[in-house]
Amino acid sequence: YPSGNLAIIITRERDQYSLIVQEDELKTTKIRAVFQSDGRSTCYYRNGDEWINMSTQGGQYLDQAGNRVRRWMWLNLSPEPHVPLSPIFISLNRYVGVRILAQDKILVSFLAMGRQAKFNMATKAEVSATSQLPPPAQLGEDELLLLAFRVRILQLFDRMRGCINFPSTEQWNKMQPPKYLMTQALKILELCMAADISDELRNSIKAIVNA
């Protein structure tokens, strides 16, 4: 930092390496973020609370009260339906920023006194039939509803296209939704059965995707 305090530390042990971002403080050496080449990374608020946590499967974004604001799965690891990542940009302090664009594009940038350094701390986990990944975390109520409404909207768009292409009501009323939408609807119902949610919510999601 311009103050002379150490901002970023990079360590390496065999084929693994880590990048640690420290706060601009001399006495406390407070850690603001840790990025590891195995796909695990965590960013912290100034008070030490967890801000962003990522693994080889996905990540989550928490507010300062500890509530989960966003959760995503990396596209190459998540079965359909998935919650994809929307690009995230945070400033750890006035000099260090983090951009999360994809699993293979996680950028840590340091800018001070007109000079900039960038580090790509991304990883690309390969998945094979024999890979042993931990089971994915269960989706919450809001995420299940979001997925259900997404499928419903796609179903409505598909019906609108049918109305345009086949003006006769007798024709498009007999048309079935595309196979991928039917598969996604079934997957959402499977997730609902595995999730710890009320029967009322489960029935509401079922009604949305089967409307």
UniProtKB/TrEMBL annotation:
InterPro entries found in the cross-reference section: FAM194_C
Every copy of the FAM194 C-terminal domain together lies at 1-174
Leader sequence segment: none
A Pfam family annotated for this UniProt entry: FAM194
- PANTHER family for the chain: GLUTAMATE RICH 6, SIMILAR TO CHROMOSOME 3 OPEN READING FRAME 20
What protein is this chain from?
Answer: ERIP6 protein
